[in-house]
Amino acid sequence: MPKLIKNGAIVEDTSPEVLDLEQWLDCEERASRAVILEPGETLAPLLEHLNEIPLVMVNFPTFMDGRGFSYARELRDRGYTGEVRAVGHFIRDQLTYLGRCGFDAFQFDDESLLEPSLESLSDFSEYYQASINQPSPLFRRRA
Amino acid sequence: MYVYDEYDQKILDERVDQYRGQTERFLAGTLSEEEFLPLRLQNGLYVQRLAPMLRVAVPYGLMNSAQLRTVARLSRDYDKGYVHISTRQNIQFNWPELAEVPEMLAELAKVQMHAIQTSGNCIRNTTTDQFAGVARDELVDPRPYCEIIRQWSTLHPEFAFLPRKFKIAVCGTEEDRAAIHAHDIGIELVKNSEGDVGYRVIVGGGLGRTPVIGVEICAFLEKQHLLSYLEAILRVYNQHGRRDNKYKARIKILVKAMGIEAFRESVESEWVHLKDGPTTLTDAEIERAKSFFTEPAYAEFDNTPDAELSAKADADPIFGNWVKRNTVEHRVNGYRIVNISLKATGYAPGDITDDQLELLADLADRFSFGEIRSTHQQNLVLADVPSNELYTLWQILQKAGLATANIGYLTDMICCPGGDYCALANAKSIPVAEAIQARFDDMDYVYDLGPLELNISGCMNACGHHHIGHIGILGVDKKGEEFYQVCLGGSQAKDASIGKILGPSFRQEDMPDVMEKILGTYVDLRSEDEQFLDTYRRVGIAPFKEKVYA
Questions:
Q1: Do B181 and B233 belong together in one domain?
Q2: Which of A11, B55, B105, B429 could hold B118 in an S-S bridge, CB 3.0 to 4.6 Å?
Q3: Which residues in chain A are contacts of B160 at CB distance < 8 A?
Q4: A111–chain B nearest CA distance, Å
Q5: What is the pLDDT of residues B34-50, one digit of tens each?
Q6: What class is the A3-140 domain?
Q7: pTM for this one?
């Protein structure tokens, strides 16, 4: 079974069938299907179904395309609490940024990257901005 | 000046460690060239024509003497003993070794300096008026707001992989010295009728291949909303900016394509969800930021220093001339702002040696409360010099080759490093600058020409801001040969404008003659005290064209 990083640990993938945005919106059993987002899609139609989605995958066709960062941030800001998983070509050096935007799972195409990537999750222990894992910006927390 | 606390230092130290690890993985072959590229760029490291170039951030142009000394020492230990001041007020090392950069960054971190986001498709160093806090025409001191933006933009998780680079400038004065209309976002600090500070926000300006003057997106934004509003703009840009063509990826193209009304609507509908959230600034935070930019302990003078100064200036006309050209009135009586020109003939514009840096650190300590500023015109500033010390200061500067009295005149040109250093450049720019400086070595003639901005870029990327110079020169490549295109009538002031192309480009060796013809035309056509830009605006480009291509 394929593996991924979830909540900071390497686990086996148990995800349901994955549909693209259009398919997912049309699917009657969508509450048991994952949805995958591609860059350039609009989140709007998904926002009214946030409590029905078991898993959102965000695809990175290239790690230079930062649109996926905003997807996760928006989903979380609008109250989505399920899994948000990065798939495709992202790199371990992006994991702290991705995590702070609301990703809690990372699925690399190459599983040999999983183990060394765990290290990158703790590149930083302090941040200036408000983010999903630290909702209060530093200026509200400074002693 | 802002001083790091344990939080700032921790973030910076962790960034240094992270980059050290990235460099090690790259050198060990476990991080590919393609993947390392944006990581090193976001840490200011380019790989140039001859060697890597490391661009160190100077947040809104402010440094202290300890930082200058560290830069001087690093330039000696890791480089060739000189650095370059860039048009984003940053400092560039031209010859570091890639493997040694983490060590340099660790040394810089000890004096609260870094190279974070000085390159790459992310939010770059925020720039402002080099006379912030001391200018007579200042409405609001921009530095606390610049620092708030610096912290917010540093390692922002959502905006590190934007379609393209993103530049923010802030000004708080009547005269715009930060070129806010030529930035992705320009912020003008203003006061409403109740006297509350807020922001006039300009969006979609930029130079490069498609120069655009920014347009107003918000006439008055209340001060607590600064960061959430910036996030809304950045999010719209991150989602909708073009990523298929890097020459059409800047926010200016998106704003043009959508139209400012539709763009504003998108921003507002995004902002609805961000407004009043945790990113909303608190009064306490604004006060904290302000507390770092309080007045230094100015001495109280009666009118004697000014009287003494005029007496000295009369007695020594060379000194008097330097005072007139290179110093500016200060907000506080008995003080002057001193510009230090890095545009001496025979030296690359904006370059400064390790010895000069160390001397300036000493002079900053002795005469200007230990602080020094860099300018987007590639000069340095001692902002708080008592008038009665000017003569002593000038004598020392003169001996060090730092008293060229040309601030704001033809030979004080903005010039990118060009093809001598930069891998992007189509043409060399430094030799053109030097040839023009050498031709116009008669300072009486240069002064007679009046305030004149000559900006030179070695390629379309426009690091030398050629579009907004009164006279702009752009290096172009024609079948492998270097040519130079001239544009006239640009301005970076509040009445910002983009220069117009004069006509077909010229060979390098012809450039001094071309400049002579352009300036001769101006001298013939000007009415009494009319400045170059005003004459140009009155008569248009035709007379210049006729003369140059005759």
A1: yes
A2: B55
A3: 66, 69, 94, 97
A4: 15
A5: 999 999 999 999 986 66
A6: alpha beta
A7: 0.94
